[in-house]
Amino acid sequence: MRIVFMGTPEFAVASLSALLDAGKEIVAVVTAPDKPAGRGQKISESAVKQFAVSKGLPVLQPLKLKDPDFIAQLTALKPDLQVVVAFRMLPEVVWNLPPQGTINLHASILPNYRGAAPINWAVINGEKETGVTTFKLQHEIDTGDILMQEKLLIGDTETAGELHDRMKITGAELLVQTVNDLEKGKLQASAQNADSAIKHAPKLFKEDCEIHWNQSAKHVYNQIRGLSPYPTAFSTLAGKNLKIFKATLVQQQPHVKPGEFVTDHKTFLKFAAADGWLNLEEVQLEGKKKMGIEEFLRGIRL
Known about the structure:
Layout: E1 2-7, H1 10-21, E2 25-30, E3 35-37, E4 42-44, H2 47-54, E5 59-60, H3 68-77, E6 81-85, H4 92-95, E7 102-106, H5 118-124, E8 129-136, E9 146-153, H6 160-184, H7 206-209, H8 217-226, E10 233-237, E11 240-250, E12 261-263, E13 269-272, E14 277-285, E15 291-292, H9 293-298
Parallel strand pairs: 1-2, 1-6, 2-5, 6-7
Antiparallel strand pairs: 3-4, 7-8, 8-9, 10-11, 11-14, 12-13, 13-14, 14-15
Helix pairs in contact: 1-2, 1-6, 5-8
């Protein structure tokens, strides 16, 4: 099949690479436009674009997905199938264009964790299991008929970043298997059985990242794991925001109020939650670099 691939971040690169390794015909790659990034505002290319260019694949970067010129380019490619991994919401004129339609790889076991941040929310909510799903795109986001699914266990100490790196590989393998079975005509899609009890994974905002120490220690621990390494849970210390990338959970009733801390000024800094402690291991104070807790304590007077 002639395949148009659509994706932007590193998560999608694994899938594009796996399709190429499996000998699939990628006739073009669609990704986000280049944009300024970082302090110097240098023009940055998406991870998918960089990989596609390195493989000599044609790249399309439309500003608007309903642009007539972009639609004409897609139509001229005569794709049999479009594959979407971590891209934007597509208009019907795009997802309904190929004869085989458009399939999407999503980082959850649908219908649970529909939305923009399924990996983060699964960890934040303390899930023990998640997975990846391939499904056919339709009007409402992440609601299309399911093609294939693969479950994954979440480690008790695993961060969202670590889970992301495992899921992108598992997802890429599932995507190749899905395309293989579609080519053979032996894959039957099934409707999602969604009800009011399903869990959602909306886009993360700053308020989702702020730690409220009056919550349970387990809740705060899962929040830190689920937001590491990005966008990162934070609290305040010495009047500045303190990002917390890594911490260990200590199930011991604190003798101080939630939000207060104890330290030996050398090797440990731990904050009290409602029913336990978070022993900080890797942090970044506003205006400073990320560092381990011992280095951090050497450079600050508390």
